[in-house]
Amino acid sequence: MKTIHVEVITPEKMIIQADVESVTVPAINGELCILPGHAHLIAQLQPGELKLKNGQDITSYAVSGGFLEVHPKKIEIYAESADLTAELSAERARQLKETANLDLQQGKNLASSQLALNRALAQLKVLRRVRQTSKRR
């Protein structure tokens, strides 16, 4: 099976570098599935789920926005945050959301509070999707 190299990068660190069969991203105009050999593309990301697929294995991340650039042999994803779905906690995400909302209402650290709120909302969105998918099985 053909693969494409993907890099997921946040302001803090390189999250993952891997060769995968497909990448699904939450683009601003809808979900995009990118396969090896895809045409050059630049797209803005919205909060949601990033999926990296290799065979039957899917690694999922909650991303809070950013953008991606697709090259013929490489995908670069620059995300505000990217949290491994398997490590997410609904309780922690709700607490993060509450704290960020409170800070925004009080005018504290507006930029970082907005980023924290976006991150919490992305995590909660992905956790809801995972919960709904597992209920169907």
What this model shows, in words?
With 137 residues, the chain is of the alpha+beta class. It has two domains: 4-85, ATP Synthase, domain 1 (Sandwich), CATH 2.60.15; 87-136. Helices cover 31% and strands 42% of the residues. The protein is built from two helices and ten strands; from the N terminus they run E-E-E-E-E-E-E-E-E-E-H-H. The protein has helices at residues 90-105, 110-136; strands spanning 4-9, 14-20, 22-27, 30-34, 41-45, 48-54, 57-63, 66-71, 74-79, 82-84. The strands form two sheets. The protein has a five-stranded mixed sheet with strand order 2-1-9-8-5, with no helix packed on it. Helix 1 (90-105) packs antiparallel against helix 2 (110-136). The chain is globular, with a radius of gyration of 15 Å. The two termini are 28 Å apart.
Q: What sort of overall outline do the alpha carbons produce when their principal axes are compared?
A: globular
Q: State the distance separating the first and last CA atoms.
A: 28 Å
Structural class, please? alpha+beta
What are the low-pLDDT stretches, counting only 5+ consecutive residues below 50?
none
Query: How many E strands?
Result: 10
CATH architecture of the largest domain: Sandwich
Count of alpha/pi helices? 2
The level-1 CATH class of the largest domain: Mainly Beta
Helicity range of the residues? 25-40%
Q: Characterize the largest beta sheet: strand count, sense, and whether it forms a barrel.
A: 5 strands, mixed
Return Rg in Å.
15 Å
N-to-C series of helices and strands: EEEEEEEEEEHH
Named CATH topology of the largest domain? ATP Synthase, domain 1
Rounded average pLDDT: 93
Count of all domains: 2
Q: At the fourth CATH level, what is the homologous superfamily of the largest domain?
A: F0F1 ATP synthase delta/epsilon subunit, N-terminal
> What share of the residues does DSSP label as strand, in percent?
35-45%
Placed side by side, the strands forming the largest sheet appear as 2-1-9-8-5
